[in-house]
Amino acid sequence: MMLLKELIKEIENLDVRGSTNIKVNNVSKNSNEIKPGDLFVAIKGSKADGHDFINDAIIKGAKCILCEKSIDVEDDNLTFVITKCSKETYSRVCSNFFDNPSNKLKLIGITGTNGKTTSSNLLYQMFTINNIKSGLISTNEIIIGSDKFETSLTTPDSYDLNFYLNKMVSNGIRFCFMEVSSHAIDQRRISGLNFDLAIFTNITHDHLNYHKTFKNYLNVKKRFFDDLVKDSISLINVDDKNANYIVQNTISKVYRLSLLKDADYKLKIIENSFTGLMIKVDNELINTQLIGKFNAYNLLTVLSASKLLNLESKKILVGLSMLKNPDGRFDVVQMNKIIGIVDYAHTPDALLNVLETISDIKNNENSIITVVGCGGGRDKEKRFKMGRIASKYSNKVIFTSDNPRDEDPKLIIDDMILGVDDEDKKKVINIVDRKKAIERASKIVKPNDILLIAGKGHENYQIIKSKKIEFNDKNILKETLKMAV
Questions:
Q1: Phi and psi torsions of 372, nearest 5°
Q2: Could you please report the per-residue DSSP string of 231-253?
Q3: Residue of 51, 69, 150, 435 with fewest CB within 10 Å of its CB?
Q4: How confident is the model at residue 15 (pLDDT cuts 50, 70, 90)?
């Protein structure tokens, strides 16, 4: 419970109509959840406008309405707070409601098309290994001490986000490593949060169904760094051609990492194999458990961020050797000389990274068999590219379903086939049923071959129509490889 005047303190450009001395029990943007004494936030979304539900919220007992336009209501006990952007103000109100928890720990935000989940997870591992109480907010899970929570969003809603951060503060957690998605930035979910360190991994083709153009997508990512305060730090991967643009207007202190050019932080790949990368850092050779050049960038991100967060160099070097891939990220399953790999790669660049890594490591006589699909109701433009990359870098490829949602999976596969060059079409098999596709691939694969199951990684479900059906690539791969050998 909090007074309204405390909830809206230091939020500018508000038009308050009514008393600010009223007590607010809770905050919600869902009128169905409103209880007597709550504040209802009317937000205009892509499918519904919260302003249409203001009367419903009042009937349920809301004593304050935060909205972008007022409505005529004759109730002297009701307060309206008018704002230019409900999403922005909602996020700041949520921060105030939970007593601004991001000010009470070190908050590290990681954004980019690829590498967010792995980098945030590896940083969480690094600090946990060194007995520093840390929390994690990621696509895979939210971790607070010994508690783990499932999440349906890469970056949670503003209310949930501040709830979990507040819970971390209550548990004495000092560092929180958090993925920051483009959707969260665009929808103002992170407004009001105080980021000590913001990390940019890379940016490639993704989410254009939402952002419409790559320029829009790029500028949304840029906004994360534009909004940082002077005391914050930015860390960018300058091997990405858009990195310097991302930080051109930030007032934060900028540091750079690179595998290819001069930068504040560097490392060198000495050896890359299916047992892991050997890297050279500060003239020290380190054997790691992560595989592939793309993971070298993740390791360099961890190295750089750890130094910026003042972790001792010796502890960092030891920690790098102990880090493990999060579930579904280049997850290796070996069985009777067959190497199976489950990876979340669901963008053209991520798929290319994984297939190039496999191609670099494998022997010439070994074949690559790939099972891959594209999600329905998402960016259609990348299907063409995914089809071309998968067929070019594989000896055999099976196009299949990957969360088709409300689209016909056969038509999604047709979009992928459009990207396949004529000389590669003989490599392609189409099997709509994902389980049958993995079973077929397990029968084709031979000893010393590499079988890649791409696109879903850690996910334990398939979304078909509006239903979530239990499904896990790694479990099915293990089962089918047992039956095949």
A1: -155, 150
A2: T-EEEEETTSTTHHHHTTT--SE
A3: 150
A4: very high
Q: CA 59 → CA 17, 34, 54, 73, 251, distances in Å?
A: 19, 9, 9, 11, 46
pLDDT at 485 over 80: no
Give the span between the Cα atoms of 237 and 249, in whole angstroms: 16
Amino acid, single-letter form, for residue 444: I
pTM, whole model, 2 decimals? 0.91
Q: What is the CA radius of gyration of the chain?
A: 24
CA distance 7 to 97: 6
What residues form DSSP beta bridges with 373? 400
What is the dihedral sign for C-alpha 436, 441, 444, 445? Answer: negative
* Residue matched to tokens 């000896």: 395
DSSP letters for 143-197: EETTEEE--SSSS--HHHHHHHHHHHHHTT--EEEEE--HHHHHTTTTTT---SE
Mean pLDDT computed over every residue of the chain: 95
Among 45-54, 81-90, 159-168, the range scoring the smallest mean pLDDT is: 45-54
Q: For residue 400, give both structure tokens.
A: 């299949």
Q: At what angle do helices 409-417 and 381-393 cross, to 10 degrees?
A: 60
- pLDDT computed for residue 211 by the predictor: 66
Which residues neighbour 72 within 8 Å (Cβ) at sequence distance 6 or greater? none
For the residues 461-480, what does the mean pLDDT come to?
94
